[in-house]
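To whoever is on call:

I kicked off a structure prediction for a single chain this morning and the downstream step that reads the tokens threw a length-mismatch warning. I double-checked the sequence; it's 187 residues and nothing unusual in it as far as I can see. Pasting both halves so you can look.
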Amino acid sequence: MATVTKPLKAQLAEVGYAPQDITYLALSHCHWDHTANANDFASATWLVRQEERDAMFTQPPAFARCLTPETFGALKNSKTVILKTDEYDVFGDGAVIIKSAAGHTPGHQVLFLKLRKAGPVLLSGDLYHYPEERAQHRVPKTDFNRDQTAASRAAIEAFLKKTGAQLWIQHDFTANAKLKKAPAYYD
């Protein structure tokens, strides 16, 4: 289980926002540790791949491991944009791009940010859980489709090389401990 010392709503409030102020919601994937606050953003436009949405709402579930529908059930009736290409440029300016990275789950995706001062960053979702997976080229046995994960990793590694982006691995506790936390931010 994950422990949070400051809830997301409180972190948003510190920087002057409420969930209703958020225009878009994109999740890397549907596992509980990535959807915990999703229902709070049901008024936003949800950016999701059809495969992931289907996995979340098909009955019986396409796969049940780590699914916690009570954390994302409100999204079922949200305004939704189904992402049909490998890259989706959220604002049309190349600053925020959602990239397909299927394998961990059917519609897993990663987020590329082109930040003015910090430079390009790619948030991994669960494409990698730990730096060791990346260094040793190990794909977890629990991934939905290990071959897809390997192909997605190869594509993302090529993208990282091309863009020079930093890879931020969400489950890398050591690296994440060094990152700024709200209300601080990266520009």
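Update from on-call: the warning came from a stale cache, not from the record. Cleared it. Sanity check on the structure: The chain has a mean pLDDT of 93.
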